[in-house]
Write a structure and sequence with these properties.
CATH architecture of one domain: Up-down Bundle
Distance between the termini: 79 Å
Largest sheet: 6 strands, mixed
Strand content: 5-15%
CATH topology of one domain: ABC transporter transmembrane region fold
Radius of gyration: 36 Å
Number of helices: 23
Strand order of the largest sheet: 6-7-8-3-9-10
Helix content: 55-70%
CATH class of one domain: Mainly Alpha
Number of strands: 10
Oligomer: single chain
Shape: elongated
């Protein structure tokens, strides 16, 4: 077996062993208990051989030569030894089951937490290129697959190896003339096992890939169930699921067709060793060349040696599934985080809120999209300054770079040129927790978690009291409608807040930002999808919450930003013009044109 894959990465088992390093002591204990359990499990056939020897040879038996001449006493000694051996076997079986299963649960728990934590720290661009279902497949299915192998498969492998070593040694010591007959099939068994393993590995890797694709499609469809229903696309989506499920089943069938052939082939190899011992060993007994008790042990032990090898098929099947999953898990853990955390601390209470963009250049992806004729640069040499406590607005047509600017401030992405500062500190040098802790973000795409109204408002401010939550809701003009809900602040909002209207969700999002009380507040299209009454309520709450803090408002409705201290008009990733509302209307530029369109003027 090679220890590296084609791309020079360590073999999955070695990668798993390295990862499990902190649990080395428990692994050793579990392995020792597995070995001792198998040793005591192999003892009863030896005792049967001794019992046969006692009955046949009586005062000339092996026990008699040890000084126990009375036949009845010999049988009592065997009875006591049997009881002790069975008790020890049971004790070690309990011990290895406890240790391996707890290890499986611990590793599963640690892997899931570490992988999820790593995924949380990856840059936003990583998630834009991958499906949620695919990541869920790794975080759940693959980790569970590894847990199933550690529960059962690891012990099986150790016990098979122990069986071969213990019985092989016993045969060589007691009956070297016939021992080779039992041992002869073993090289073929192990060679066959390795050959099957090499052929199974890529098949199970393909299975794990297909299950990730299937999970991704299922997650997308469940998230977009309203759209599916509104377009009566149920049959279309069912056919897509059927197609992906069939591809998954096909990959499994390819793996099963190979793994299922293992046991029948190995069984026929194994039976040759058993028959050889049965015939040639029996011949030696008849000719007086072999003790009948030893012959009994050889027959029993041959069966105990060879037949368990047939379980290698199931064990290898479990092993290959686990290694395919392990590789996907550890590959995800090895994914480098491109947004590197800064080292400089900036406590929220010390942040004034002065924000500056200095000749900032940004494009999505390392070199941007490769579409012919498409310029990937989204932000082109933008410079703007937001003094602490002021409110500025970003306006412009769709795709002009407004939302990208605030994502750069939050360091969801890193810029390719220039620099962004907060209170004079380059945001790349600040700890991400401090930077994002100083910024409140109200997105146009409001995300509410499945839970109560109270829990959603307090998200990010988890130690907030009910009085503080209620006060934040009042500022956001959400308190009144919350009181009318069936259970008030304890009402379950449903997944993504589907039980609430768009305006209600938006006001809860504003209340969440109010409760956080950040020095810098970003309002991204906070009134884009609400009615006039809700817009008026949100504007009133915005007027209150922007006082005394740096605020960045992104809006298509210019009526929501006319009172901003400064308005920046973006076009194709550049600042086209800026100034106060009255100044921009008078200049007869881009802003004035937008204003005339929205107010109905010619």
């Amino acid at each position: 077996m090679t220890t590296t894959t084609n791309d020079d990465k360590p073999y999955p088992l070695l990668r798993l062993i390295r990862y499990a390093g902190p649990h080395r002591k428990q692994i050793w204990l579990a392995s020792i208990c597995s070995v001792l359990n198998k040793v005591f499990d192999l003892a009863p056939p030896a005792l049967i051989g001794v019992a046969v020897d006692v009955v046949v040879s009586q005062e000339a038996s092996y026990l008699a030569r040890l000084g126990i001449t009375d036949v009845v006493t010999q049988l009592w000694v065997l009875g006591v030894l049997t009881a002790v051996i069975w008790a020890l076997e049971s004790a070690f079986e309990y011990a290895f089951a406890l240790l391996w299963r707890n290890l499986a649960q611990t590793l599963q728990h640690d892997l899931r937490l570490e992988t999820y934590n790593h995924v949380q720290n990856l840059e936003m661009a990583y998630f834009e290129d991958r499906s949620t279902g695919g990541l869920m497949s790794i975080l759940n299915d693959d980790i569970n697959q590894l847990e199933r192998f550690l529960d059962v498969g690891a012990n099986d492998l150790i016990q098979v190896i122990t069986t071969v070593i213990v019985i092989g040694t016993l045969f060589m010591v007691t009956a070297p003339t016939v021992a080779w007959m039992a041992v002869l099939p073993m090289p073929f068994v192990f060679w066959g096992s390795m050959a099957f393993q090499r052929r199974l590995a890529p098949r199970y890797a393909a299975v794990r890939e297909r299950v990730g694709i299937l999970n991704g499609l299922l997650a997308n469809n469940l998230g977009g169930i309203a759209t599916i229903k509104s377009f009566t696309a149920e049959s279309h989506e069912l056919s897509r699921i059927e197609e992906e499920s069939e591809a998954y089943r096909s990959r499994n069938k390819e793996a099963i067709s190979l793994s299922a052939a293992f046991v029948p082939i190995i069984r026929m190899v194994i039976v040759t060793g058993f028959i050889a011992i049965l015939i040639f060993g029996g011949t030696l007994v008849v000719n007086g060349q072999l003790n009948v008790g030893i012959y009994s042990v050889l027959v029993f032990m041959t069966q105990r040696l060879l037949w368990p090898l047939t379980r290698l098929g199931n064990t290898l099947d479990l092993y290959q599934r686990a290694m395919a999953s392990t590789e996907r898990i550890l590959d995800l853990l090895d994914t480098e985080t491109k947004i590197i955390d800064g080292t400089k601390s900036l406590p929220v209470e010390e942040v004034a809120g002065d924000v500056s963009f200095e000749h900032v250049v940004f494009q999505y992806g390392e070199n941007g999209p490769s579409l012919k004729g498409y310029n990937p640069t989204v932000i082109r040499d933008i410079s703007l300054h937001i003094p602490a406590g002021e409110t500025i607005a970003l306006v412009g047509s769709t795709g002009s770079g407004k939302t990208t600017i605030v994502k750069l401030l939050l360091r969801f992405y890193d810029i390719q040129g220039g620099r962004i500062t907060l209170d004079g500190h380059n945001i790349r040098e600040l700890r991400l927790a401090d930077l994002r802790g100083a910024i409140g973000f109200v997105s146009q795409d409001v995300y509410l978690f499945h839970g109560t109204v109270r829990e959603n408002i307090a998200y990010g401010s988890f130690d907030a009291t009910l009085d503080e939550i209620v006060e934040a809701a009042k500022i956001a003009e959400a308190h009144e409608f919350i009181q009318q809900l069936p259970d008030g602040y304890d009402t379950i909002v449903g997944e993504r807040g589907q039980k609430l209207s768009g305006g209600q969700r938006q006001r809860l999002s504003i209340a969440r930002a109010v409760l956080k009380d950040p020095p810098v507040l970003i309002l991204d299209e906070a009134t884009s999808a609400v009615d006039n009454e809700t817009e008026a309520a949100i504007q009133r709450s915005m007027a209150r919450i922007t006082v005394g803090r740096t605020t960045i408002i992104i809006a298509h409705r210019l009526s929501t930003v006319r009172h901003a201290d400064r308005i920046y008009v973006l076009e194709q990733g550049k600042v086209k013009e800026y100034g106060r509302h009255e100044e921009l209307v008078q200049t007869d530029g881009v802003y004035a044109s937008l204003w005339r369109v929205q107010t109905g003027e010619r």
